[in-house]
TrEMBL record:
Lineage: superkingdom: Eukaryota
Source organism: Poecilia reticulata
Family, as annotated: Belongs to the claudin family.
Protein name in UniProt: Claudin
Localisation per UniProt entry: Cell junction, Tight junction; Cell membrane
């Protein structure tokens, strides 16, 4: 029961991480640029510009004309979300609280571990590409005019948090293999001791 509870905790943590990553993907505040009272917010899918009182937003029309950091970040975030979707399906098949693959306990454990590994890969990918985006923002800001202040926005922190929780949940799901094998080995050794004791008594 305890191991099943830990699996649920790991799965829920990963689910929270994936949800945060999805939210960050559609947030418009990945990059901010301010010049006097005029502000511009750049997301992965659209940009907004205007003052603090009124702003207008517009979707990106031409992918190849976007900055390289936006193109790469958007592509790798989508890859991370695809891996997370596969991990969700595989993890559900391998969790002890579900009835899938009950006839194949070893395969069920491997499915949970595989799902955890995919969560880890997706979370690490999100953290890496978000950190790279931030480094690009810092580099651009250093080369920008003094009147222009370009920096990263709130979506970056949401993306970092999403990657962290996804990795944490994946680690918990992956460690389940060790606990599962140790538990099964302990039960096997206990059965062997009981059978040996019975044979000696007879």
């Amino acid at each position: 029961m305890a191991s099943s509870g830990l699996q649920i905790v790991g799965f829920l943590l990963s689910l929270v991480g994936v949800s945060a990553t999805i939210a960050a993907t559609f947030m418009v505040e990945w990059g901010k640029e301010s010049q006097a009272k005029h502000r511009t917010y750049d997301g992965l899918w659209m940009s907004c510009s205007g003052t603090s009182e009124r702003a207008t937003c517009e979707n990106y029309k031409y992918l190849l004309k976007l900055p390289i950091e936006v193109q790469v970040t958007r592509a790798l975030i989508l890859v991370s979300l695809f891996l997370s979707a596969v991990a969700l399906i595989v993890s559900i098949l391998g969790m002890k609280c579900t009835r899938f693959m009950d006839a194949m306990p070893q395969s069920k454990v491997k499915a949970a571990v595989c799902g955890g590994g995919l969560f880890i890969l997706a979370g690490v990918l999100t953290i890496i590409v978000t950190s790279w985006y931030v480094s690009r923002m810092v580099e651009v800001n250093e080369k920008a005019h003094r009147l222009q202040n370009r920096e990263f926005g709130h979506a970056v922190f949401v993306s970092w948090a999403g990657g962290f929780f996804t990795v944490l949940g994946g680690v918990i799901l992956s460690l389940r293999r060790c606990w599962g094998f140790s538990g099964s080995s302990e039960s096997i050794s206990t059965n062997q001791l009981l059978s040996t004791a019975k044979s000696n008594y007879v």
